[in-house]
C-alpha cells in the first residue's frame, strides 16, 4: 500500500467532497478512471448522461488545500483508504470512507477494537456495567470504540482512556457533539484517537448519526450494546454491525426497564448474551488472530464501450421508487454487470439514485 502524495490527497478530497459523491460512487469512479484527477474531469459529462440538469459542484484545488491546512492546524491529517495507517477493519466494509480525518494517536488505528454503545439516558447500573466491561476489554489490548454520545458512550470512553479508545464524530472535528462532552474529547485526543469523515465546519444533523454509527461498527471486530430502547440509535449500530459481518453482543436487563427492551430483543434475535468481558473475548479470539485483508489497488481503468441506448432505456424503465437488487436489475434488463454499474454511477452523480442496504438501489 503506497501513500498518496499531496496532489493525490488533494484530488481525493475534492472528489469525495463533490456533490452527490459518496463512498460507493467514489470507488466506482476510481475503478472506472484510475485516479481522482481523471474522475473529476469526467464528472460533468457523467452527470449529463445520468439526466442531471446541472453539473455537480466540484470543490476547486484551493478549497481542498484550505481544508487540509485547517486540519493540520488542528493537529490532524487525512488518511486515505489504501494507505497503511487506515483502520484495517473499516477498510473491509463496502462503504468505507475514502478519506478519514484523524486526530490523536494514529498508532491506535491498527489495534483490534470493540464498539461499546448504548442509551443516552442510561441508568446508573448501565453506565457502571459499560465502564466495567470497557476496562476489562481494554486490559486485554482491545481499543474501545464509541460515538462520544451521552450516557453509555461517554462511560465507555472514560473507562477506556488508559488502555485506548476511539471516538467517531458525526460532524466535523471542529463541531463536536454534544457540547458537554468536549472535555472528554480533549482527553481522548491526548490518550486515544478521534475520526470523522465529515468536512470541517459540518454541524451534525439527525441523518449524520447513522453514518457515524457505521464507523463505530466498521472499525470494530464486534459491537456490544449495553442499554437501548426498542427504537434507538444503538440498535441502528447493531443492525449495521450485522450487515458488516461483525459479531453483536448485548447485556440483558430487567423487562420492567424500557432501556433494556432493545438489548433483550437483540438477545432474542441471536446476539451474544454478555455478563462479563470473557463472553466477548472467547468469541473474538479467532478474529483477533486473523489478519485483515489489504486494500486492493484500484483496478486498471475500465474505459470500455459505453452501454447502448437500448440497454440504458431498459435499465431506466426498470428503476423506480421501490429498491431493487443490482443483480436482479442486470438480469431483468439483460445487461452486463459493467453496463449496469456505469448507468448507476451516472444516475448517482446526477443525484437521481438512492442506494439501500444489501446492494439495492432506487430512483429518487
Question: How is this structure best described in words?
Answer:
The chain has helices at residues 6-16, 23-33, 36-49, 61-73, 88-91, 124-139, 152-160, 182-191, 208-218, 233-243, 261-268, 277-289, 309-318, 326-333, 337-349, and strands spanning 76-80, 99-104, 113-117, 143-146, 165-168, 193-196, 222-225, 247-250, 272-273, 324-325, 353-356, 360-363. It is α/β, with parallel strands linked by helices and 364 residues long. Among the domains are: 103-289, Rossmann fold (3-Layer(aba) Sandwich); 309-363, Orthogonal Bundle (Arc Repressor Mutant, subunit A), CATH 1.10.10.10. The strands form two sheets. It has a nine-stranded mixed beta sheet with strand order 1-2-6-5-4-3-7-8-9, with helices on both faces. The longest helix is centred in the middle third of the chain and has 16 residues, at 124-139. Mean pLDDT is 92; it is low at 293-303.
